Amino acid sequence: MIGVMGAGAFGTALAIALGKAGHTVNLWCRNADQARDMAELRCNRAYLPNAPFPESLHVTQDLALAAKGTALLIAVPLQSMRAAIADLGAPSAALVACCKGIELHSGLGPTRVLEDTLPGITSAVLTGPSFAADIAIGRPTALTLACADNVTGAVLQQALTTPTLRLYRTSDTVGAELGGALKNVMAIACGAVIGAGLGDSARAATMTRGFAEMQRIGAALGARPETLSGLSGLGDLALTCTSDLSRNYRLGLSLGTGEKFDPSITVEGAATAHAMLRIANEKGLDVPITRTVTELLDGSTTITDAIDALMTRPLKEE
After folding, report:
1. Residue 195 and residue 252 in contact, taking contact as beta carbons nearer than 8 Å
2. Which residues bind NADPH per the record (predicted)?
3. Which CATH class is domain 174-312?
4. Is 236 annotated as a binding residue?
5. Which residues pair with 28 in a beta bridge?
6. What does the pLDDT look like over 287-315, one tens digit per residue?
7. 94 pairs with which residues across the strands?
8. Strand order of the sheet with strand 165-170?
9. Any known ligand binding at 19?
10. Active-site residue flag, 260
11. pLDDT per residue over 184-232, tens digit each?
12. I need a labelling partner for 291 at 20 to 30 A (CA). Which of 27, 81, 215, 252 fits?
């Protein structure tokens, strides 16, 4: 039995994929009206209306029930995850964070937030290049499962892999989390480049220098280089920086065009940029793209000035 906490697009998609693979899945939904609607219609019409629920997927508002079994997949935004899991107590299931980012006030990644909130639990993070709609309808998807405990990681890898969802395992939670967090910042930058009409060549340059920045940050914070070169880093970067389905990329587009962006849409890259810039300043790291994205978000620079600043940086070897 597997639980999924959070009935947004990604949580619902994971629940559907695992249910289709034969697991009994309890999908926890906070909102009573939404839970009742999904239970009656056997789909999540708010996010994935064309992905019907398998018979083994059950919608519940009983968090204790969802927390029983092999794993509880926590698919809520990182900035609200601490509050969401506060009432879990001491779950028997391994907790798997299915969110990306850096907590704004603490500077912690998902597994550290879990462990800080619920000391003594076993935690992991599921991350990598994926869109919920692809997972829900069974398109082949590969993700990274990072768990510091190799035994638990192997159990989770076996349990959560399905015929259409392939998981690659690592013990490098720092690298996996940084890749998933920082690629969102770079996606905002790439969206701004395209929104400003600078073209695909400029986007390619932004992605490449953004990846170099991710590697520089990773090296300073203890990530393994091969992790950032894998699915959770380079793979997710390639997807998020090139697709209109990415909320972070769409936010960047709005910054580049000067159009308003819907404030009700959760965009983890915005909080991550601010949190990462604070960490970089404390450690003396050179993060020009992260700094520029933060300034664009704050309105302390314009897209024209940002481009000029980046293009006139001192020349150096690659």
Report:
1. yes
2. 10, 30, 47, 100, 132, 247, 268
3. mainly alpha
4. yes
5. 5, 60
6. 999 999 999 999 999 988 988 888 887 76
7. 71
8. 57-60, 25-28, 2-5, 71-74, 94-97, 123-127, 141-146, 165-170
9. no
10. no
11. 999 999 999 999 999 999 999 999 999 999 999 999 999 999 999 999 9
12. 81
